[in-house]
Amino acid sequence: MKLFTVMILCLVLCLVLYLTTRTNIATAQTFNEEKLSAEKGNAEAQFNLGLMYAKGQGVAQDFGKAKDWFEKAANQGLAEAQTCLGVIYAQGQGVAQDFTQAKAWFEKAAAQGYAEAQTNLGALYAQGQGVAQDFGKAKDWFEKAANQGVGKAQFNLGVLYSEGLGIAQDFDKAKAWYEKAAAQGNVEAQFNLGVMYAQGQGVAQNFAKARAWYKKAAAQGFAPAKEVLKNFPK
């Protein structure tokens, strides 16, 4: 059975990232309190208000208003807001999709060392969105973020090494980066490690280890892993 690695060079969706880690925003401080502080120019409050509008916490969901508040905070140099604003443009949420604008905002945050923005900038270069496709630049940005521990960046860097995109193909390095991402629960990395062990790519072929990685990915609901396991050697 021929198996293929998953090649998903993906954006870190900051709206998901922050809205899952800051679920207490609406309860810790009321929307009106945040709005009062935001209107006085507090960048953190402006950012939080953008999150509330994006999520619909304490107020009706409105990506247009989310964008406006993210922009106010971003113009004050808040890297988190710059990244979220970039995602708004990349996804076309409340604005016309505009990868050039997304790139500009990601660059501002990335220049501050903000790892999620570095990951997203790498994804734009890898996919040629808003920029000429350049896997070498993608690798550089993914590496900066991967060294800060971002699982998506570690996975994406593994893909580049596995496929030899912009760099010499190196299964050892691919495996090392997949392992770092997989340890954080990255399901695509877990699946790709399964493929490496099943195919003997950079490792001795080992169906037991392959199955173990596929099972980890399947346990998180990853459909390709579930499909592979249906006919995988026992």
Please identify, by name, the CATH architecture of the largest domain. Answer: Alpha Horseshoe
How many separate structural domains?
Answer: 2
How many extended strands? 0
| Beta-strand residue fraction | under 5%
Largest sheet: none
Structural class: mainly alpha
Estimate percent helicity.
55-70%
Order of helices and strands: HHHHHHHHHHHHHH
Name the overall outline.
Answer: elongated
- Runs in which pLDDT lies below 50 for 5 or more consecutive residues are 1-21
Instruction: Determine the mean pLDDT.
Output: 87
The total count of helices amounts to 14
Q: State the name of the first-level CATH class of the largest domain.
A: Mainly Alpha
The value of Rg in angstroms is 20 Å
Look at the structure and name the CATH superfamily of the largest domain. Answer: Tetratricopeptide repeat domain
CATH topology of the largest domain: Serine Threonine Protein Phosphatase 5, Tetratricopeptide repeat
Ends distance:
14 Å
